[in-house]
Amino acid sequence: MTWRMLALALAAFLVTSESFASPPLRVGSKRFAESHILAEIAVQSARASGQAGALHVEGLGATAIAFKALEDGEIDLYPDYTGTIADTIFHEGGAPSIEALTTALDARGLGMIGALGFENTYALAVRANLFEAKRIKTISDLARSPELAVGVSHEFLGRADGWPGLVSQYGLAPREVRAMDHGLAYAALLDGQVDVVDAYSTDAEIAKYDLRLLDDDRHFFPSYAACFLYRRDARARFPEAFAAIEALRGQIDVAAMRAMNGEAELAGRSFADVAHDFLRRSHPEWGHALAPPLPRMTFLTRLARSIARYGPRHVALVAIALSFATLVGVALGIVAARSRALGAIILGVAGVVQTIPSLALLCLCIPLFGIGATPALIALFVYGLLPITRNTFTALNDIPTQLRESARVLGLTPFETLRLIELPLASRTILAGIKTSAVLTVGTATIAAFIGAGGFGEPISIGLTLNDTPTILAGAIPAALLALVVQALFVAVDRIVVPKGLRVATARQAAH
């Protein structure tokens, strides 16, 4: 039965994976609204040029993940900013020119399309009343107010051109600093949970919430001109698409970008629709080639589309990871039950792995396996081992010694004893471990979207970016329903796998 499960899982993955087809142009985006919008503009420009299969690989987390995906060929293009490239990727200070960055990228087989026409610099934002009441108008003023609570994005907290650099440049006194998703920072600021947040100068929330940006009076932040990074081999494969994307140079000013961010973040429009309207205005000659925007969807329609779009990949990730975890986990459990020394080592290592946060485990796989389905499958497989291994070990250890001795008297070999007596008797406990692993994997697989593996984590990630509850629910509800379906499936599997006599005996024990 395990082999049948594995075969079905592999078949599902082949059906839902694009890896065996000729890859289309893949445009990545990081996990904030502007990056999504710029990626959609590139995708729709490519489609208008005739590259109908161009794909948007959404929400690749921080810069390091997106850049590695580009270097590894997982994506062909993604939007970024000159200051980010210089500080985060090349670890160079100052304000390098486009020419200098282009030369450095060329050595890695990469190129740059820039500048798009606007800068999106980092800034620190405060509420207007705080700006006036405490007379905090510059970052130097902030250094004299250590009582103020700061909330910044996870990436900003760790970047050299982010919080650590600001602390060094301005001598900011130690204070409470909370890391949070950029999409949630403004809500925390308005609620008074924090007093200062990091902002992007093109954020629409700055005007909507009447916020004030602190003057960078020591000129710490470098230039952040918007551009596209791309693989040179991709440019050779898709010349028409890149010609269309090149036409975007100088076409997007600060006002246009801020307005587009507002349409997505404040008006709730989809990234694709916002990009479509911009291209229709800036390139009317493409009008016939641009796909019309989708009509506004009710929540039920959005839910149905989410299940249809993300469900197959989510199910495939869970099925494949669980199948391999079952094969390896049961085998490890058998080995652990046969040797006390090996058992301590196996269960100890599996237990330590289980304590690693799931997102951290996914990120640890990126340097070895890149982004996408492969690192996600490996992380999910490793994460699902402990419940199966532990339950197999426990179930086999609980079998009475007299039964094993009876098997030897009957002349059964150790393998026959295991197959005909021990595993059937242990099947209910082993199956319970597999069920626990399956439910855990369903939930953990949502995090795989942060490294481009797809699944129901994608709408959750987008919803967090936009602070949009319905979009979050469009991913969370199907994931929860899938967990319930898994529970129900294991009830049926229990009737097939567990011997009838064992089920009856268990039921009688429960009744008494």
Structural notes for this entry:
The chain is an alpha/beta fold and 512 residues long. The protein contains 25 helices and 10 strands. The chain has helices at residues 2-16, 33-48, 63-71, 82-89, 98-106, 128-133, 139-143, 154-158, 163-170, 182-190, 205-208, 232-237, 239-246, 254-265, 271-282, 299-338, 340-355, 358-369, 373-383, 385-397, 401-409, 414-444, 457-466, 469-497, 500-511; strands at residues 26-28, 55-57, 77-81, 110-119, 122-127, 150-152, 177-179, 196-200, 211-213, 225-231. Strands 7-6-8-5-9 form a 5-stranded mixed sheet. Strands 3-10-4 form a 3-stranded antiparallel sheet. The protein has a two-stranded parallel ribbon with strand order 1-2. Strand 1, helix 2 (33-48) and strand 2 (55-57) form a beta-alpha-beta unit. Helix 16 runs antiparallel to helix 17. The relative contact order is 0.12. Residues 14-20 have low confidence and may be disordered.
Summarize the structure.
The protein contains 25 helices and ten strands. The protein has helices at residues 2-16, 33-48, 63-71, 82-89, 98-106, 128-133, 139-143, 154-158, 163-170, 182-190, 205-208, 232-237, 239-246, 254-265, 271-282, 299-338, 340-355, 358-369, 373-383, 385-397, 401-409, 414-444, 457-466, 469-497, 500-511; strands at residues 26-28, 55-57, 77-81, 110-119, 122-127, 150-152, 177-179, 196-200, 211-213, 225-231.
Category by helix and strand content: alpha/beta
Approximately how much helix is present in the residues? 55-70%
First-last Cα distance: 33 Å
Rounded to an integer in angstroms, the radius of gyration calculated over CA atoms is: 27 Å
